[in-house]
Amino acid sequence: xxxxxxxxxxxxxxxxxxxxxxxxxxxxxxxxxxxxxxxxxxxxxxxxxxxxxxxxxxxxxxxxxxxxxxxxxxxxxxxxxxxxxxxxxxxxxxxxxxxxxxxxxxxxxxxxxxxxxxxxxxxxxxxxxxxxxxxxxxxxxxxxxxxxxxxxxxxxxxxxxxxxxxxxxxxxxxxxxxxxxxxxxxxxxxxxxxxxxxxxxxxxxxxxxxxxxxxxxxxxxxxxxxxxxxxxxxxxxxxxxxxxxxxxxxxxxxxxxxxxxxxxxxxxxxxxxxxxxxxxxxxxxxxxxxxxxxxxxxxxxxxxxxxxxxxxxxxxxxxxxxxxxxxxxxxxxxxxxxxxxxxxxxxxxxxxxxxxxxxxxxxxxxxxxxxxxxxxxxxxxxxxxxxxxx
Length: 390
Hints:
This protein is α/β, with parallel strands linked by helices. It is 41% helix and 13% strand. It is built from 13 helices and twelve strands. It has a seven-stranded mixed sheet, sandwiched between helices. Strand 5 (167-172), helix 8 (185-197) and strand 6 form a beta-alpha-beta unit. Helix 3 (48-59) runs antiparallel to helix 10. The model has no long low-confidence stretch (mean pLDDT 95).
């Protein structure tokens, strides 16, 4: 007798939609001649000195487990990095946790703090995993919609208006995926006052921190009174072109880090030692290569913005990350219709904005972490495509 699996799957998991980003990634993998502006991945190879450090660790026989929390040497480097760059101090032994990418850190943070029914305020548009991870942790995602009119920034007034008796946390991501928005320090300070007033926890995903082109990044934990109520998340994927190495970290009060470590030790045990050894080199000697990559991204940022202007797609100027979020509303197509038809007709892959939050409808996400040649050709193809809607 065949097993009826449809009745055996957890309803929570069954009802979650699959990632809209991965759907397009899978379609692209099956097509030839596609230019992909879809997946948010650097087109750079991990700098050689970082790769060499990982290779050398294998030569030396570093193939064992590490502490659940990660190599102490790496945690010390992370703490030094945060103190040197943002003036915020963390104790490496009990306030820093090394994770398998920042995505795991998001999941751990939510599972560690949420009681069933707790609400999490999430600035949208946003990375696709925030709401699903909230739901899987037993929480209720509450979107805070943003738009180009306010530079895709949430406001303190907006946060306060959304707070209820069940609100537990605020989840933010600046520089932002998918819009490229950044947040000025003075605006974060206003939000911090609301956070303190209502005794909220802040989960701050700052994985695009180093990819800031206009102004200076402010680490939320460095704001007055915010260190111990912030779970600071960061990692190596974007700035150091280490997506496939899968390494992130979380910093915060020792009690929440202990709770996150408890979950981590039962699910992941530890991050791979080879990756951790490479990350030590990245923090110690990777800044020059990071600066070169950021300068290249900035050049591409300006190129894609100019291209969108020339073909008639209004686009908010991204000030960080490596995404542009142009409006396609004048075409009369939904975001998914636009992305599907563009891929089919012109073989250019983009991400429909609605999969990144309902307020993303009418937009598409385009990653400019691609070659200048690819960006130029993609803009040309998109220009030909949107001509039919004028």
